[in-house]
Amino acid sequence: MNRLKTKGVSKGISRRVAMVLTLGGYLLGNPASAYALTDTGYTIPEESVVMSDPVGEAQNPKVQPKKKLAVIIDDLGNKMEGTDEILSMPVKLTVAVMPFLQTTQQDAKRAHERGYDVLVHLPMEPKQGKPEWLGPGAVLAKLPNEEVRKRVEAAIDNVPYAVGINNHMGSKVTADERIMSIVLDICKERGLFFVDSKTNHQSVVGKLCEQKGLPQVYNHIFLDDVATDDHISRQIGKVSKWLKNHESCVTIGHVGSGGKRTASVLRHSIHMLKQEAEFVGVSDLARERSKPDFIVP
pTM of the full predicted structure? Predict the structure, then answer.
């Protein structure tokens, strides 16, 4: 999605005045503070002001950030709270859409039309949790190879415009080499990549991606493992701190019971985060990390 442009300053107003107006607008905003980084995985139960670029930013390449920020929003596809707010963000996002639900195809289509990346949010068995949190077509550890393949391919076919897959829950399955090998083989056959949400630090996804020649892309920071404004703001601060020491960051939030909070805090943090990095789709990161014989769509 193209970045939004500020309206031109009228000829009667000097550039200096325009810059003062822009700075004043920023100071009235609510940028998040930076906090120390922790990288922990978790499993969640299922549960408007458009910021514009500062005047002159587009004309001055020295202020354009080179670092990349990929924000993934999980759990679309079921009329979850915050969906509309996420799908109206003025920056490029990635949305992970669950298959076989009432708004699966509608949400994927809306996101694609906005210029967002779309992922299949593949339901995968966790170590603990209620079965109803998974949704239909879940990949379970007990399934035979043929059934795993059948379910993964059906999920991909059900989510239009998908360029990759990430796991919904999945703390048990992402540590299972047999099942993840099948999933990643299908990814390679379909020209898709896999984003490991890191719900299990014993995940085998990275190792198998390396073996199979797939790009290694994984989550660094969850935004809303606690769905309060203060916590989400602190997590945004961790994203900012991460970007000061790394070239890119992948962060995951959710629609659902706290989806409107996540969307609100994210929207109010856009200006601050733009000073650190460019908002990109997660496919941009996968493309950078791809081997020459694997082409990311």
Answer: 0.78
